Amino acid sequence: MEETFIEKCIHDELDYVIKDYWQDVWNYSFIITKDPHLSDDITQDVFIKVFKNWNSFRKESSIKTWILKITRNTAINYLKSSYFKRISLVGFFSDDKQS
């Protein structure tokens, strides 16, 4: 199936955004979480959200500001989630037994 010109432009623009901001997103999520594996997951989730919400970007701020706000919110949501709390708790008790 052929891409329309507009779809190709959007695809190219999103590729550029990923290449340009991937490291910034990962670094910022790492600052918040202090966990490299969690930062990998958050970074992937952030760019999925960027793809899904690309048309809602209102250009009231820079793309970087918008993406880093998504990063902050996503990282905070990960830290608040019950999944993360269970994993952290299990890891805490596992470390106790090894001492």
From TrEMBL:
UniProt keyword terms in alphabetical order: DNA-binding, Sigma factor, Transcription, Transcription regulation
Gene Ontology molecular-function annotations: DNA binding; sigma factor activity
GO BP, sorted A to Z: DNA-templated transcription initiation
Domain RNA polymerase sigma-70 region: 18-81
Metal-binding recorded as keyword: no
NCBIfam families assigned to the protein according to its UniProt record, in alphabetical order: sigma70-ECF (TIGR02937)
PANTHER family the UniProt entry points to: RNA POLYMERASE ECF-TYPE SIGMA FACTO (PTHR43133), RNA POLYMERASE SIGMA-70 FACTOR ECF SUBFAMILY (PTHR43133:SF46)
Protein's recorded name: RNA polymerase sigma factor
